[in-house]
TrEMBL record:
Gene3D superfamilies: Palm domain of DNA polymerase. The lineage of its organism: Eukaryota, Fungi, Fungi incertae sedis, Mucoromycota, Glomeromycotina. SUPFAM superfamilies: DNA/RNA polymerases (SSF56672). It comes from the Eukaryota. This is DNA-directed DNA polymerase.
Length: 362
């Protein structure tokens, strides 16, 4: 690709391409850890981004609003430089100039993939041994693999082939995980500063946190004009979708959220003013959730439910009703993970899709 001066035919994945493109452009030589203590210390610092639902967010107390640090037991010192900034800025500019969704997604991926390479856990690498299963001798060879301590699991690949997944006997800790740990730490700092330094400071008790993910918020605020408030802070908000790094954008521009339900991390649902909806339910396929919601409520539309005082609009979207009943009626809903073709040895199984015993979060 002419943007990075690399031949994509030599790469099998975007992360590998993005990593080499970054190294070629920046010319940086990243120093890896040679001290195991430093590596282990940094590995423990790889804590994920903040993802929480409802009032859980109120339990955070940074130092500058009252938290007291009693003791510091260990510190890692290092020289800091913004060597990655030119690469990130280049992809951001290319994304802003993109003329179609493919290019926008690609240049976003080229940034995200570099971050992913700094977070790779080489301890989880596996070797997959493809083994024939034709005769008794093949079976003995396979059982020999199974008896090894490094054996993880096996997967049948047809009638005469098995894939034996083996853990690595040894690994080379050659990933710059200090970069990924720093990015995660800075992302949490950005989120804390926004919430406590702007939102809580401006609105006080008139704002309530509904849900937050690594880089986003859903919060209920009492104010005359939220769009005017955001326009007054161009240093915090990007209202023109310019893809500026570090600024928050409105995910539903011009379409106010009228209802919002949050079950747990990665599980939420909201309704917009135009009656459209958006859901997130990690761990369950979209089709599985959709089928479950329709099967639960649509059969009732021809029965007594329409004779009740409930407005038809209130039950128009079955997924909204699922989240309502989960939160306010403490119902538990089961769904099947469907959407992918099942093999001859696969079975469709139900699992708990959403359910909560927590206080209502609405």
């Amino acid at each position: 690709m002419h943007h990075y001066g690399l031949d994509t035919n030599h790469y099998v994945s975007a992360p590998a391409l993005s990593w080499d493109g970054m190294l070629k452009m920046t010319g940086v030589k990243i120093e890896l850890f040679t001290d195991m203590t430093m590596h282990d210390f940094t590995e423990k610092a790889k804590r994920g981004g903040i993802t929480t639902s409802g009032s859980h967010g109120k339990n955070v107390h940074p130092m500058y609003i009252g938290m007291v640090v009693d003791e510091i037991t260990q510190v890692l010192s290092f020289d800091q430089d913004n060597w990655l900034a030119p690469y990130i800025a280049k992809n951001t500019n290319l994304r802003q100039q993109s003329k179609n969704s493919f290019e926008k997604d690609f240049f976003k991926l080229m940034n995200n993939s570099v971050y992913g390479k700094t977070m790779e856990n080489v301890r989880k690498y596996q070797d997959v041994k493809l083994m024939r299963m034709i005769n008794e001798n093949d079976e003995k060879k396979f059982l020999k693999k199974v008896r090894k301590p490094s054996f993880k699991y096996a997967r049948q690949l047809g009638n005469t082939l098995v894939g034996a997944h083996m853990g690595k006997a040894s690994v080379i800790l050659n990933k710059p995980i200090i970069i990924g740990a720093s990015v995660l730490g800075l992302s949490k700092l950005l989120m804390y500063r926004f919430w406590y330094g702007f939102v809580k400071e401006k609105y006080g008790n008139k704002v309530r946190l509904g849900y937050m993910d690594t880089d986003s918020f859903i919060y209920h605020v009492e104010t005359e004009d939220i769009y005017k408030d955001m326009a007054e802070r161009p240093d915090l908000f990007d209202l023109n979708d310019t893809k500026t790094i570090g600024l928050f954008k409105d995910e539903t521009p011009g379409n106010v959220i009228t209802e919002s339900y949050h079950i747990r991390a990665k599980s939420y649902h909201y309704v917009l003013a135009d009656k459209s909806t958006k859901s997130k339910h990690k761990g369950v396929s979209k089709k599985g959730m959709s089928d479950m919601a329709k099967d639960t409520y649509f059969p009732s539309l021809g029965g007594t439910l329409l004779d009740d005082t409930v407005e038809k609009d209130e039950i128009f979207d079955p997924m909204t009703q699922v989240y309502r009943d989960c939160l306010f009626e403490n119902n538990i809903f089961y769904a099947k993970n469907v959407g992918m073709p099942l093999g001859t040895n696969h079975e469709a199984a139900e699992k708990i899709a959403i359910g909560t015993k927590l206080p209502e979060k609405y």
